[in-house]
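Encode chain A's predicted structure.
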Amino acid sequence: MKSDTSKCSFKAIHKEQVQEALSYLHSFIQEERALTYQRFFKTSKGEYGYGDKFLGITVPNTRKAVARYYQTLSLAEISSIIKSQFHEERLFALLVLVAKYEQKQSNHHNKSEVFTFYKKHMSFVNNWDLVDASAPKIVGDFLYDIENDTSILRKWATSKNLWTRRIAIVTTLHAIKKKSYFEDTLAIATILLKDKHDLIHKATGWMIREVGKKDLSVLYSFLDRYHKIMPRTMLRYAIEKLDDDLRLKYMKKHY
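Encoded structure for chain A:
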């Protein structure tokens, strides 16, 4: 039995439907890839992805499963999948959620439901690719285009949780690309200047670089003010697209 595709609502879980979707997803398993992914996503003890498990499914094949099943899975069914121990199943659940949020028939109520669902399940958005594939498209669109209130992002930027902080900065990609609006990006980047984690340095530098693609003067202003105290990785990511002389200038003056 298929769920109503006109709404994104919590309904009874149809276990056979969940199993069908996961069986299709599992048909793309390449076991030899699983070990490679475990190394790539740093799953050893003491690393950021410690304990994460992989099946060995590529992102393009995961998206094939999403295209086939996103209309038939309810939020309750997605909830049962997003809690999986397997990385690719959580990614599948998040990409299904993005597809449901973006579908043409999705209205304000539907989008609000998806956003609320996302917030309640943020503890399962627990690796950098999961954040990057979902936060700008769901959280970014909702906060900037529907709710028009992004104050929660600055709160998230001070969270003790690595992935919540990454969601805070990466969400602003929506505003950078769709609105050429940079205030939140720069404010959150300033908060994160003293962050200790490399993944935050990379994400913040990436967002600063994206600002520069829209307005170089804003990028230069931020760099001139903060480049001496920016973490080296953050600075490298931020200046990646500048010409050689400018990159050298900023790197030389970096402490």
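The two ends are 62 Å apart (CA to CA).
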